[in-house]
Amino acid sequence: MWVGLLWMALSSEPEVVLLGKHFFVSIDLCVNTLCVCVILSQRFPQKNCKWCGPGGISRRVLLVKRIEGIMQTPKAKTSSLEVPQKKSPATPRTRQLKTSGSENNSVSPNPASRTPKDRSPKVTERRLSQSPATEKKRPSRISELETQLAQLQEDLKKAKDQLNASESWKRRAQQEAEDTKKQLLTMSEKFEESQQQLMELSSSEDVRVQELRKVSHDRDKAWQSELEAMQKQHSIDSAALASAMNEIQRLKNQLEMVVESEASQTKHAESAYAELQGLRLELTETLSLVEKMKTELSDTRESEAQALELVSKTQKQLEEANATAEMLQADDVKAMEACRSLSLELEQSRAQVKPLEELVSKLQADPANICGKTVMNPTGDVEVLQESVENEETKQLKAKMNLLKHEVGQLKSALEASETRYQEEYIQSTLQIRSAYEQVERTKLESGHKEAELEAELKKAKNNIEELRANLMDKETELQGISEENEGLALKIEKNQPSERESELAMELKKLEHDLAELKASLLDKEAQLQSVAEENGTLWKEIKKGEMEKSKVNDEAVALAETARAAEHEALMKLGYLTEEADKSSRRAARVTEQLDAAQAANTEMEAELRRLKVQSDQWRKAAEAAAAMLSTGNNGKFVERTGSLDNNYNPIPGNMGSPFSEDMDDDSPKKKNGNMLKKIGVLWKRGQK
């Protein structure tokens, strides 16, 4: 009976056993031994059970379940990053029972095999009852394989979605680069337009300067006309004085006849002397005022020199600000070049990441190929050359990833250094611009104070001129009164005879004429000084206006430079932010690739360990099967059962016409004892293999 069961197991087709999640291995000996145990558990009747007694076969069922649990290895651990791994599901082949006709046509390797007529009907019935039980177990494996195929398809869909997302991200990056180029072109056009506007403003400012010059020229003409009017008035006064002198000469002839009014004449002479002293005091005061005006003119000249120095300083500061602006523009150009170089390096790193991803996918696909090759190996040996090649590829990938990480670190450090330099230069430029603004405001305040002082001085000079004019009018009235008195005296002298004091009066009159001439000369000097002061004031006003115009220009240029610097800074910051984001994304991708490589390496190590374990198990099962076959052959009176086959899918077993020697004497106790001992030995060997 046992020999017949073993013959049925060996004559069946090779089973495909699922071992783990990643690959399939077909081992004929292991499956045949398992089939032997299953057949023993199913074909042995319950009423003749020697181990359990009547009513059950629990020990045999437990043994079969234990063997099945050992054969079904645990599923491989899935990586944290869900690395997609290919599975090669194999379609299970149903076990087909050989009919008597096919057995008769086939050639049996055993010459002592019996015909199917010698078999008992019980064995055929038990064989037919075994086939539906085995066929019930196979759909469950098929469903498991289908679920695994569905998972693999989902993983493939996820990978395709990730590839599509990466391609869309690349397209977006290209579009953003094109947008940045367009923005740069627009900014350059705006910069050219601003330069043209500055040129137009400079031309308009030149026109304004010419208009101001015309206005100043008109004012000078007005001042000259006023001075000519004053000169005409002085000429009229001189003519009046000449007429007065003629009248005095007439009086000289008439004074010879003055005798009676000596007391009145003496009093009049004393009053005239007092008036002359007052005029002398006024002359001294006017001279002091002229000296004060001279000192003020010197002060104004010094202030002008200081203003010119301030203007030169502001011009120097403007030149420095322009130089800083040029430096900032050059730094912006350098930053743009650095950004371009960084973008090129990022593109190169992306191009390097693509082959790395392809290698990762190859590595993920290689484990299935390795498993397939191990399945096709009948001895269970693993090819060492392919493992060494894969190890070398993994080492190369690790080296490439380390280089990429190092390059990303260098790029980040370069970006940080450029950001710090740009911030320092921006701070320096802002400080310089602020200092220039402060100096311009100071110069404005100083010029305002000086203008106020000059206006006050001009008002004082005008007041002094008005006072002098009033004094001249008073003196003219006094002269008219004196002339009238002289006329009255002349009439009296005509009436009276000349006296002895005519000579004294003539001397006093000469003194008065001399004093009047001195007063006229002093007045002319004062008028000349006033003209010079007015001219100097006009020049000062012109210089002040020019300084204000230059300051306004400087302010406008500084504001324009500050705006351009701010715009360039904003653009550079935006570009730096974009580059930092791209660098972070590339570093993240590199990290993902490294994680995928590590996961693939871990999966490779696990698969290698499983392959080794399966190899050891296959060796143990082979030894156990050989021992069982030897024992069965010795127990069957030296009959030897041999089975040859291959692991190919087109394998056709050679059915033997082996008949069961125990079909006639099923109730014999000696073969049952031998088979029980044989099963015990198989269990011991199996436990040793597990250890």
Please explain how this structure is put together.
This protein is mostly helical and 691 residues long. It has a domain at 2-170 and 615-690. It has 9 helices and 2 strands. Strands 1-2 form a two-stranded antiparallel sheet. A hairpin with a 3-residue loop joins strand 1 and strand 2. Helix 2 (28-43) packs antiparallel against helix 3, helix 5 (121-255) packs antiparallel against helix 8 and helix 7 packs antiparallel against helix 8 (502-635). The longest helix has 135 residues, at 121-255. It starts with a helix and ends with a helix. Mean pLDDT is 66; it is low at 1-57, 73-125, 370-382 and 637-669.
What is the terminal separation in angstroms? 32 Å
Helix content: over 70%
Largest sheet: 2 strands, antiparallel
Radius of gyration: 64 Å
**Number of strand segments:** 2
**Average of the residue pLDDT scores:** 66
In order across it, which strands form the biggest sheet? 1-2
Low-confidence stretches: 1-57, 73-125, 370-382, 637-669
Q: Which geometry do the CA atoms define? A: rod-shaped
Secondary-structure element pattern, one letter each: HEEHHHHHHHH
What structural class do helix, strand and pairing data support?
mainly alpha
In what range is the share of β-strand residues? under 5%
Number of helices: 9
Short summary of the structure?
By secondary structure, the protein is mostly helical. It contains nine helices and two strands; from the N terminus they run H-E-E-H-H-H-H-H-H-H-H.
